[in-house]
Design a protein that fits this description.
Blueprint: H1 4-7, E1 42-43, E2 45-59, E3 71-80, E4 84-95, E5 98-106, H2 112-115, H3 131-143, H4 148-157, E6 160-166, E7 181-187, H5 191-200, E8 205-206, E9 217-223, E10 228-230, H6 232-236, E11 271-273, E12 277-289, E13 326-330, E14 340-345, H7 353-356, E15 361-364, H8 378-385, H9 387-428, H10 448-462, E16 463-472, E17 479-482, E18 485-488, E19 491-497, E20 502-507, H11 511-524, H12 528-537, E21 538-546, E22 553-561, E23 567-571, H13 586-595, E24 608-613, E25 616-626, E26 629-634, E27 643-646, E28 650-652, H14 654-669
Antiparallel strand pairs: 1-7, 2-3, 2-14, 2-15, 3-13, 4-5, 4-6, 4-8, 6-7, 9-12, 9-14, 10-11, 12-13, 16-19, 17-18, 19-20, 20-23, 21-22, 22-23, 24-25, 24-28, 25-26, 26-27
Helix pairs in contact: 10-12
Length: about 675
Amino acid sequence: MSHRKFERPRHGSLGFLPRKRTRHHHGKIKSFPKDDQAKPPHLTAFMSYKAGMTHIVREVDRPGSKLHKKEIVEPVTILESPPMVVVGFVGYVETPRGLRALTSVWAGHLSEECKRRFYKTWKGRKHKAFTKYEKRWSEASKEGTPMQAEVERAKKYCQVIRAICHTQVRKVKIGQKKAHIKEIQVNGGTTEQKVDFAMNLFEQEVKIADCFSQDETIDIVGTTKGKGFNGVVTRWGVTRLVRKSHRGLRKVACIGSWHPARVSFQVPRSGQRGYHHRTEINKKIYRIGKSLKDDPANARTDNDLTEKAITPMGGFSHYGEVNEDWVMLKGTVMGPRKRLITLRKSLLPQVSRKALEKVTLKFIDTSSKFGHGRFQTSEEKAKFFGAALKKAKTEKAEKAEKEEAEQLKAEVQAAQFRAQQLRLRLQALGADASVVPKKIQAGSLVDPQYELRSLYEWLVQAAHLQRQVVFECGNGEGEVQVGGRRVVLHRMVTWQLGESGLKLSVPLELQAEISKMLTDARRRGIDEAELQRLCSTWELLGAEVVSASMGMPEPAIFLVHRQTAQAVVVAKWPAVEFRPPPSFDPQTHFRRLISRSPQNAQPIAGDRVEVEYEGRWFTGTLQSVEGDVVNVKCDVDSPGVITVAPIASVRPARREERRDARHRRARSFS
């Protein structure tokens, strides 16, 4: 098989060595077309951005070919090409060692995106670049022609003139603010004509149609798509070894002889693949399209009169919409989407029949490039689906309106809650009702049910129903005036509300009903139907009461029954003081203590207890005590689960007491 080394030792040219990551990320033009002074001055290159690919249908015009007058489908690449801006020129002189830059002239005003290219970090800098040039231009404009000395020097000594151009990167959505700058050679005419041509383009836009034309064959320069580190089978296309090969089969078995004691550069080796600088020649221009602003139907043809733009449905994948001028090239273009591609005029004149063929497009595909698109435009899709699509849009709109309404309702409730907190705070600071805005006073909110619900939830958690005191209140007739309403206050029962010092006072006749209501809400949660009944039965009022001991006004909340005028009060009032009995009878006192059933000491955190749940007792560790409610970590609970139960349903762990007693007896016997 020694002949194989002469036929196909590898796939891949050695002329592209070394295959490493390029330093010229934006495509360097290493050669420009030969200058022809007989032609008028013109630019020889342009910068574009790769948007994506699609396909077209055209009729072949090639007499003698089997495809003549037949339709074919071909892949094409779309390059978005916003106008470039000329901001200067450089003059070169020819030397025995090549071109040498002699002088350069910059325009008087440079855009921010152009100046950003000269800064590594734009933010926080003084932005002094080109300020001296601007000053020279402003001074020269008063005296005469600006930059006259440099211009005359270039006209006298230079043989090559290259314009300094930058892209308008803000017009394309590639997530970049720095413009791409490149020197583009001016060909045609004498040196004086080239300099005047470049000077006249200063701070002016140059469109793609000014450099190239349809059916022209051009070259493209760019960087290929990076693939990372690859092996020899992928990188060089070598044949895999047999299945039973030792220590791998996707490799080169012999990489060279013993001597010379080095690996020859011709031997395939693994390494970087992709992200190489490449120049591809003879790419034919099928169409140069205008921007969406100038031609909204820039993808229309003589055979396809549909009003559509070049952007496919849903946009080009990973790129978006094409809104600026664009150019359509036959076939593929190196690099990923959004990468800069440099277009250059062909170095050699094209004389082949394919290069000179006139292209007539019949159809340009604009269906979705994400999957298998069926429709060319949104109107076509809507017409096909008809009522189904309209119904889907209606349901989507209704869903959006419903979500918006729920969001607004949540915002209103949050605003009402903030107003309630502000009102209570102002009243706690002793503010009179006249200085409290009406919109945050009790009972004046848009949704009084929300305010009553907040009060109800707090009472359920804070009320100590085991500790109660009965007292008599009111004037001689047992009536008071609260907020212009008549309120009946007779014999009342008061309960402590947490550690805040506030008390809940209810009429003695309603003690059983309210106690049952709070207990049920604590066990099962608040019932919405019960809350509706409360709102329709009770009215929420705010007032100030004067304590008998302090003599100072304190804020209070009144729930007044709409029919009977009985009131439930939340305030520090009344200040009930402890009064010892008038006489002490030791015999009666000790008889009462003896006859009373023994009571267990209240458990504390850390005790081993048993808690009743659905008629069964479960052993666990007491975590905390909050009023009449305890939190127990049962032994059968999953990690992170806490059992909440009333304190009445908790007792000491009897099983563990018996076990401890057995242990004590065993130790005494031993």
